[in-house]
Structure formats: C-alpha cells, structure tokens
Specification:
Shape: globular
Number of helices: 10
Helix content: 25-40%
Strand content: 15-25%
Structural class: alpha/beta
Order of helices and strands: EHEHEHEHEEEEHHEHHEEHH
Length: about 270
C-alpha cells in the first residue's frame, strides 16, 4: 500500500465497546484514500484484539501498541508513523458522519489552506446538539482566525483536534508541534496553538463533521487533580500570550486572552 492522502489517528484505551462503531464509521467514509493509525495505549480490556481483527479485514488499518502512557503519547506515536498528506484525529468512543473526511479534504485542497475547522455534533443519550462558533463557510487569514479564537479562548471548538484537518508537512517541519505528554488535560490545545503559529490560511465549514459522544465515565469526565488543572492552565495561558505577542496581536486581544484564566469551558 502506497502513501495515503489522509492519516486518521485513533488513540485507544479500554474502548472495547465503542471501538467497532468508531472504526466502522472511519472505514466507511466516502473518501477512501486513507490509512488508519490506531494506537492501543496499554488497554486492559479487549481493545487490542478488536484493532487486530479490523486490521486483518482492512489493509488500511495499522495497529500500534504501547505501555499506558496517555493520549498525547499515543497521538505522537501515530504522527511519527503517519505517511499521509493530511492528519485527522478521531477518539475511540466517537464516530464520523459518512462524508466527513471527503468534505474536509475537498476544502483544504480547493482553498489551498493550512487548516480546516468545522462544527461537531454533541451526543448525550438521545439528544444531539450542533456545537461551534463559525456558522458559515469562510476563508480566514491567520489574523482573522486568531481574532475569532480570542472571543472563545476556552472552547472545545478551537481547542480539540478532532474537528480539524491538518497539513502533515507543516507538522513534520516543526518539532514544536506535538501533543504535550506532560499534560493530563488540554494537550489538544497545546498542539493547536503550536500549529497555528505556522499556518497562514484557515477554512471554516458550517456543517458538522464529527459526532462527539459526551458520555459520563469517559476519559474527559475522569477525575483530574485540581492542582494540575491550575498549573496546566497557567502554562497554556503563557503559551496563548506568547503566540499573540509573536504575531503582534497581543495588545489588541489582551482582554479576551485573559478570559482564558477564568472563563468556564465552552462547548
């Protein structure tokens, strides 16, 4: 199998029950020129067996296994082994609409941009809610994108990795674009702030490309050390501030950026 256009990265930890539906939603995409890099992060259930079963049925699936090291380390391992032109991220308890990858690839190619961002659908039981802040298709410069992001510095929409498509060559060219393995919270935002520094053109889609299952008991709901949260937020605030300073935008957006320290997280 030659290099695929898109490398879809799936970190996996004890996701035996949700993993089959997740992988089926990826492999059933209308855009087929992909590889799926699934990293088992030391699962103690049958997750690795599920991954190997899928790999035996579909040659696009590549399975990696590591000692339990966290989602950031799992993603970094996959990024290091990805061969695609673009990087897409999916969590093992979520699912993609059938045309999600196709719509993002079409956008990044036709608009010749560096990042595609899109709304997502939050699923809580039987309730489905569209989430996102850019409500129409639009091309944005780096300055315009950072202005929009400063309005919602604590949002999932800008912070997470799974509602975006990235150019792999930008990631490969800069060693500082990584998932921070020393963070047990908001490692996605660290990656995005690092990536945005080198991206010039952004494209926003208006329709959701991801089904986020907000399930009590999942990783995002597990107890975090409050001291770690405070320390991580301080670190990320410093990085936020430095990014806007570096790009000459800090004084203009200073009040919004300071909201990151005190604002409640937004969907």
């Amino acid at each position: 199998m030659g290099n695929a256009a898109v490398s879809v990265i799936v970190p996996v930890y004890n996701a035996e029950k949700t993993l089959p539906a997740c992988l089926e939603s990826i492999l059933g995409q209308s855009f087929e020129d992909m590889e799926v890099l699934a990293v088992d992060d030391g699962s103690t259930d049958g997750s690795l067996r599920v991954l190997r079963d899928f790999a035996a049925r579909d040659p696009r699936v590549r399975v990696f296994s590591q000692r339990n090291s966290g989602v950031a380390a799992a993603r970094n391992l996959a990024i290091d082994n990805a061969s695609g032109d673009y990087l897409q991220f999916v969590d093992s308890d979520d699912r993609l609409p059938a045309d999600a990858t196709e719509r993002m690839v079409e956008a990044i190619r036709s608009r010749e941009c560096d990042l595609v961002i899109a709304p997502y659908t939050e699923v809580i039981g039987l309730i489905r809610q569209k989430r996102g802040f850019l409500d129409r298709d639009m091309l944005l410069s780096q300055r315009q994108f950072l202005g929009r992001m400063a309005e919602h510095p604590n949002s999932f929409f800008y912070a997470v990795m799974w509602n975006k498509l990235y150019r792999a060559d930008i990631v490969r060219a800069h060693d500082d674009i990584i998932c921070a393995e020393d963070m047990d919270w908001s490692e996605d935002l660290y990656f995005n702030l690092s990536y945005i520094r080198y991206a010039e053109k952004f494209y926003a889609l208006s329709t959701p490309i991801y089904n986020y299952f907000n399930t009590p008991g999942s990783a995002v709901h597990t107890a975090l050390n409050p001291v770690n949260i405070v320390a991580t937020r301080a670190t990320l605030f410093a990085y936020y501030k430095e990014l806007y300073e570096h790009l000459g935008l800090y004084e203009e957006y200073k009040p919004q950026i300071y909201k990151y320290l005190v604002a409640v997280a937004e969907a």
